[in-house]
Amino acid sequence: MLMFRFFFRKLNYLTGLLKTKKHPKHENSGKTEGTDDLKFHRSLNRNLALIKSTLGESSDLILREFSFGSEPRINAVLIFIDGLVDKTLINESILQPLLYDTRLVGVDKEFSISGMKAITRRMLAAGEVELTDKPDEAIAHILAGDSLLMADTNSQALIINSRGWKTRSIEDPETESVVRGPREGFTETLLTNTAMMRRKLKEPGLRIESFIIGKRTRTDVALVYLQEIVKPGLVEEIRQRLRRIDTDAILESGYIEEYIEDHPFSPFATIANSEKPDAVAAKILEGRAAILIDGTPFVLTVPMLFIESFQSAEDYYSRPYYASLVRILRFLSFFISIMAPAVYVALTTFHQELLPTPLLITMAAAHEGVPFPSVVEATGMIIIFEILREAGIRLPRPVGQAISIVGALVIGEAAVSAGLVGAPMVIVVALMAISSFVIPAQIDAGTIMRLVLTVLAGFLGALGISIGLLFFLIHLCSLSSFGYPYLSPLAPFSPSGLKDVFVRVPFWAMLKRPYGLSRYNGLRQKPGLMPSKPSNKK
């Protein structure tokens, strides 16, 4: 019986796919249902009825009816959504000129001939005005914050840019704080973010392409790149992946990320994100492209390399020697965070002979009376740590910090006192936790890696750790980001790319952009810029 139910479910699914292929939908059309093939009528009352039937009797939908022009006066209506528009612009730049400006005298005859074009040329003081005769396009602009002006005896309407909703001010990004460097971060407003990119890259070749994704949310998405540097194939690939998205809602950049990534089943992120305009600008200058989404301060950049997780914007604002030391510490912290519990389990379970005798005796005494094997002990502590970390993130900040600190101290001390966990295990997990905070970009993948390695170490010891590391290395080598090798410049190996991997050489030594990213891989600076002492010759 169950087999027949499964067969019929699969048959219904295939039938639905065939119907979809016979009647394909327009991708990202975003048209309002019921208005796809309609056009505005010359009757204002019929047009108003069409708008009301589509948008309904919403309390925030404003229909400002008025008359303008000399005798006979022309009936008109201005439609907008309260809260999405700039009321000052509507009153001073649209309604006031139409109602009180003396230049309207004698415009009626011209109005009957050229319609709304006369109003656009002679009356409105708005920056962006567009003519349309399609109700679906007009409604989409109304929902985006524009105003719609319709007049009687005219089948065309004016779309007037009047967007002016409340926005968050530019602030220091919390996820990428720096000691030295710009203190500005992206906001939730797309136009503000694109303006910040223009401020960073005052280059005529900077291109910003617009997309509207999401049938219900109609989210504005912008693709930003430098035409002279980025590879044309990369831009075209991004366009295709964005256009194929056909979904109801795009509420954050994470939605876009899951639809366009190369390897959806990999625990490693192949698309980078950032809140800092300077970091995004630096990646664009290397030949990458940025994807900005309205409603979120996180900007996506592609392609992404694995080494980007260990790089910080502050590395390029500090002197190269200290920046190189800090970067090496990041790599070391990453390996400690994923391997510390596994190594401890392997040593205490299979390879006690590798420990010095005094240390082995101390660890054995601390573990005496603990009823669980080391692998269960380590796995339980890792899970408890993840619970505490999640609780600290989700709770309000003052309460979350207290929960994280007090919870770790109380649970750790109580577990050791009760004999459920050995003291060395608490130290190992604490070291793992501190090290994992150094690389926030790899926290998700690092959690999965440390759990897998710990379980393998509990069953096979050092052999299990080696098998797990080999598996993850092979998986990393097989990954790509928009066709670009994920482990580059390590695999495939590129000697010139090592100048910004484990260490950061001085700027005057990094002559070329990363190999394979840019269109021509040309020089990004003039050779011979290494500073030197001034000569004493007169």
What would you note in describing this structure?
The chain has 538 residues and is an alpha+beta fold. The chain has three domains: 44-160, no CATH class; 190-304, no CATH class; 320-484, no CATH class. 45% of the residues lie in helices and 11% in strands. A five-stranded antiparallel sheet has the order 1-2-4-5-3, with helices on both faces. The chain has a five-stranded antiparallel sheet with strand order 6-7-9-10-8, sandwiched between helices. β6 (206-213) and β7 (219-226) form a beta hairpin. It is elongated and about 105 Å long.
Structure keywords:
5-stranded antiparallel beta sheet; 45% helix; 11% strand; 12 strands; 538 residues; 3 domains; alpha+beta
Q: How would you summarize the topology of this molecule?
A:
Blueprint: H1 2-22, H2 44-55, E1 61-68, E2 74-81, H3 87-100, H4 107-114, H5 116-122, E3 129-132, H6 135-144, E4 147-151, E5 157-160, H7 190-200, E6 206-213, E7 219-226, H8 232-243, H9 253-260, E8 272-274, H10 277-285, E9 289-293, E10 299-302, H11 320-349, H12 357-367, H13 374-394, H14 397-417, H15 423-436, H16 443-460, H17 462-478, E11 480-481, E12 484-485
Antiparallel strand pairs: 1-2, 2-4, 3-5, 4-5, 6-7, 7-9, 8-10, 9-10, 11-12
Helix pairs in contact: 4-5, 7-10, 11-13, 11-15, 11-16, 13-14, 13-15, 13-16, 16-17
